Amino acid sequence: MTIVYALIARGKAVLAEFTATAGNFPTVTRVLLNKIPTEATRMSYVWDAHVFHYIVENGVTYLCMADEQSRRRVPFAFLEDIKTKFGAQYGASIHTAPAFSMNAEFAPILQRQMDAFNSNPPGDSLQGVRSQIEDVRAGMLENVDKVLERGEKIELLVDKTDQLNQQAFRFDRASRSLRRTMYWRKVKTGVAAAGVAVILMFAAGATACGGVTFSHCRS
Predict the structure, then answer these.
(1) Rounded CA gap, 61 and 83, in Å?
(2) Do the Cβ atoms of 80 and 125 come closer than 8 Å?
(3) pLDDT tens-digit readout, 119-137
(4) Are 61 and 36 in contact (CB under 8 A)?
(5) In angstroms, how far is CA 9 from the centroid of its own chain?
(6) What would the pLDDT profile of 51-63 be if each residue is shown by its tens digit?
(7) Residues 45, 76, 61, CA angle at the centre, nearest 5°?
(8) Which parts of the sequence belong to the V-SNARE coiled-coil homology domain (predicted)?
(9) Cα→Cα distances 117→11, 87, 99, Å
């Protein structure tokens, strides 16, 4: 499961966003922001091999894009997490702040949480949205073409190379960790075997030399 893009907007005014890979996500999301209702809701839009998930609360849209194979529980848990952090950090100023005024401060938080949920989503966050997401029906998952009018369709461009590089990096990191674990396991096994060999040699020598004092051998 990979979340590659996140955005927070008040109406059409984008307050903060972050993308983990190259693509035209900002262009696509600007079109979607014109179609997303302002009343509280949560929904998912399919666009090619990706899905845009969003939550609207108090006129603020929290949106992310993930690959189509992703289960919705993780993206929505991510959105709930950044919604809580964004509200706690900015409070009422969210409703008056100029566009991108929070981007410098909050984009790194979006990146950090995106990395966290992509690699190891917190269990408590998933549990917190489980009951909300398990009841999501097909009506809440629409093809984005249905909300766009003629002439508005934009091809979603995703840099597959960046995505493959990210996946390769995660695989390489896991491989290095596994190699380190196997190396230290071999070291511990070798040390234990050497210890046993020393003990056996000592016992054999003591037996042949008349006990632990090696009295027969010294004489």
Answers:
(1) 9
(2) yes
(3) 886 665 555 555 454 444 4
(4) yes
(5) 21
(6) 888 999 999 999 9
(7) 65
(8) 125-185
(9) 26, 19, 26
